[in-house]
Design goal:
The chain has 754 residues and is α+β, with helices and mostly antiparallel strands. It is 29% helix and 24% strand. It is built from 19 helices and 30 strands. The strands form 8 sheets. A 7-stranded mixed beta sheet has the order 3-5-1-12-9-10-11, with helices on both faces. A 5-stranded mixed beta sheet has the order 7-15-14-13-8. Helix 10 runs parallel beside helix 18. The radius of gyration is 27 Å and the shape is globular.
Length: 754
């Protein structure tokens, strides 16, 4: 790290002051002249035909400017992977919370009153909530898909059954993961403004503005260039803030009224109309040698998609295949079923399917280690992939430090000593993960990123990128990357707001790609800008470029500190000599990845991060309460750009994982979310969390900027399994259904005593 002046140094987030002082502008802070306020009427039943919608009373209410139903929309089916979305339900509802009508009024109170005046008549239809039941013959059909199966994955490599036959130990278990809400600070919101030229300007807190623009153009039956997306500050996302009907509904209200429209969910509406984590029933079978080496893996996953398909297809695919690049084995069979149910449509959540499968896999790895009499850490060492490994699915692991992560985590946690103590009620557990840094199967036309840097007249640099800041520290990391490459300070770099009229087209914040892919584009743009600055300085100073260096906002001749030029002076001279043109640097990064073929074979990511987590727990055998008392997380993140931000990512991921493992679960009452609010949906507070110790392992990846890889999602993936394994170490019970509530703990303890 001594070679870097900015990269690798703790850096407070560049937008921290704005957020701390309240100066940061979020979507609901935007108030435009003549703005109306929208509300959405949602289905009160889980499944039924719409017989009649009477909006007449709502339209007569003073202050109501527009009421729309499906007949006011383009009536087009659209979607992400399946065209089973409608802006407003035209004839049938498939889950409680589905959008049926929308109102625009002069204020929120009037809009809410108008919703109460809309009369709806339904023919209720039988509903099905469990995915296994939904697949059975005679089950109610939700979207006319045979067996309610929206998508199927089937892949086999090697000879799984033969490998099982040759195995010393074969285990088979079922695991169940829960449906959880992303719990971001800012509910879904939009401000849509009609422009005089027929365009619609959006202010949207979304993770993938460029891709959403494509989807919304189709939903609204408008040319893509007629939609402009401007990014305000975003109050968290964690995968949830992708496409949502709320945004184009706001646009349609704005278009039909000719007025700006603000449309935002309350917290309860956000619970009822969001896209929570995809729950999975996982049947896992694994084979092992006497020495603990994996021989084969077979998995069958049934996932409760909900009433329409969001990102369930790639999420299920991730669960089926991603973990197979963490350990060395060549015999794999995977079956995955994405099943329609009359529940909330499910979507992205930090971990994106990998977290669900890591829970099952790492629980079974621990079980196998105990049955074989092998230290669970030693078993991970023996199976871990190394740099240069090509997985059974063709994933090319250029850098891997999983082995080192396990070693550093166990050393820091005092693993061997604490395992030897064997105090009943106290336990320690280990779990590992891998992940991606971007994923090319998401948006097949391209997988890269681009950026533009401009030398300003004050000698500072502005960075334009379509990549999104949603609280993960993207602006800060990009500023550090640009500053390091240009010999500047972070204060000398300014990130321009994301605006589809001005920014580059970007895939946005998902798949832990921002630093690796977007940051590399910034790095390349900075290198291009530096090259142009140095060439111009060489001409002005009449000195060869190889005798010049850039530092402290100046270009200086090596060995002659008095001979140089300030970047501000250089920018001004260039501007006047080139007819008002600034010096620009452009960067394009193509990671050279592959969209997996029809057999799901190919290398979809340019870099693969790894991690090893160790949880220590105390289990109260009287109450069933589990308390995480210590946590160590070692992450192979390639290169640490900002240690402060990296620690925050790890701590936040672990906190979310503790919630998922111990308390969070959406539950339904006849298709309606019964705990739609933070009074009933509990998330971890300070007393629920231990001190979380972050350990950085640097493998210096060949692709990322300065060797960096992704971090945001891997921080959550192993938490549930680490806690589960620690509970086993503490009291000898294996918990295979999330969350591990006190009731479940007590039930298993009673079983263990029989």
């Amino acid at each position: 790290m001594s070679d870097f002046k900015v990269v690798g140094k703790p850096q407070p987030f560049v937008d921290a002051r704005q957020k701390a002082t309240g100066d940061a502008v979020y979507t609901t802070d935007i108030h435009l002249p003549g703005m109306l306020y929208g509300k959405i009427l949602r289905s009160p039943i889980p499944h039924g035909r719409i017989l009649n919608i009477d909006t007449s009373r709502a339209l007569r209410l003073p202050g109501v400017k527009k009421v729309i139903t499906a007949r006011d929309t383009p009536m087009l089916c659209y979607g992400i992977t399946h065209e089973d979305w409608h802006l407003l339900a035209p004839d049938k509802v498939r889950f409680v919370g589905e959008e049926i009508a929308a109102v625009a009024a002069v204020d929120l109170d009037t809009a809410e009153e108008a919703l109460d005046l809309i009369k709806m008549e339904f023919e209720e239809l039988p509903a099905v909530y469990d995915p296994e039941e939904a697949m059975q013959p005679g089950a109610p059909l939700i979207n006319d898909a045979p067996g309610n199966i929206a998508h199927v994955f089937e892949v086999e490599r090697g000879n799984v059954e033969e490998a099982f036959g040759d195995s010393y130990l074969v285990l088979e278990e079922k695991y169940y993961t829960s449906q959880v809400y992303q719990s971001y600070l800012e509910p879904m919101a939009a401000v849509a403004k009609p422009e005089s030229d027929g365009r619609i300007s959006f202010y949207l807190p979304i993770q993938i503005p460029s891709k959403c623009r494509v989807t919304y153009a189709k939903a609204l039956d408008m040319p893509i260039d007629s939609l402009r997306i401007i990014q305000p500050h975003i109050g968290g996302g964690f995968g949830a803030k992708m496409e949502t009907p709320l945004h184009p509904i706001a646009a349609l209200l704005a278009k039909l009224t000719g007025k700006p429209v603000s449309l935002a969910n309350t917290r309860e509406e956000d619970f009822m109309g969001g896209n929570p984590r995809l729950p999975m029933n996982i049947q896992l079978k694994m084979g092992f040698t006497r020495e603990g080496l994996i021989t084969a893996k077979k998995v069958r996953i049934v996932a409760a998609n909900g009433g329409r398909v969001c990102y369930g297809v790639p999420i299920l695919g991730t669960a089926c295949f991603r973990v197979d690049s963490m350990y060395k084995f060549q015999n794999v069979k995977a079956e995955g079923y994405l099943v329609y149910t009359n529940t909330l449509p499910t979507g992205c959540f930090r971990g994106f399917g990998n977290s669900q499968m890591v829970f099952a896999l790492e629980s079974m790895m621990d079980q196998a280690a105990h049955q074989l009499g092998i230290d669970p850490a030693e078993m991970r060492h023996a199976n871990a992939v190394h740099s240069g490994y090509v997985s059974v699915h063709g994933w090319q692991v250029k850098s891997a430090a999983l082995d080192e992560c396990v070693g550093k985590a166990t050393d820091a946690a005092g693993w061997k000593k604490k395992r030897a103590e064997k105090i009943f009620g106290k336990g320690i557990g280990l779990a590992c993960t891998n992940h991606v840094s971007g994923y090319s199967a998401f948006f097949p036309p391209f997988h890269g990123s681009s950026a533009m840097l401009r030398l300003e007249l004050n000698g500072k640099v502005s960075v334009t990128s379509g990549e999104v800041e949603l609280g993960q520290g993207q602006k800060t990391a990009f500023s550090q990357i640009a500053a390091e490459a240009l010999g500047l300070t972070v204060e000398d770099v300014r990130m321009t707001p994301v605006d589809s009229d001005l920014s580059t087209f970007s895939l946005g914040a998902w798949a832990s790609r921002t630093t690796t892919v977007g940051g590399k584009a910034v790095y390349l743009a900075a290198a291009d800008l530096r090259s142009k600055i140095m060439a111009y300085a060489s001409m002005l100073l009449e000195v060869e470029e190889d005798q010049l260096f850039m530092t402290g906002g100046k270009v200086i001749q090596d060995g002659c500190p008095d001979k140089g030029i300030a970047l501000a002076d250089l920018a001004s001279r260039y501007l006047y000599q080139h007819n008002g043109s600034f010096i620009y640097g452009f960067g394009e990064f193509n990671p050279g990845t592959q969209v997996p073929d029809a057999e799901k074979y190919g290398n979809p990511s340019c870099a693969y991060p790894f991690a090893a987590h160790i949880a220590e727990v105390e289990v109260d055998t009287e109450t069933g309460q589990v308390q995480v008392v210590s946590y160590h997380a070692a992450h192979d993140l390639g290169r640490t750009i900002n240690p402060l931000g990296a620690s925050g990512q790890i701590e936040g991921g672990v906190a979310m994982g503790v919630g998922w493992a111990l308390m969070e679960d959406l539950f339904y009452d006849h298709g309606r979310v019964a705990n739609a609010g933070f009074l009933d949906y509990r998330v971890p507070g300070p007393k629920d969390l231990p001190e979380i110790k972050s350990i950085f392992v640097e493998s210096n990846d060949p692709y990322g900027p300065f060797g960096a890889k992704g971090l945001g999602e891997p921080a959550l993936n192993p938490v549930a399994a680490a806690i589960s394994n620690a509970i086993y170490d503490a009291v000898g019970i294996r918990l295979r259904e999330l969350p591990f509530t006190p009731e479940k703990v007590l039930t298993e303890l009673k079983k263990s005593k029989k």
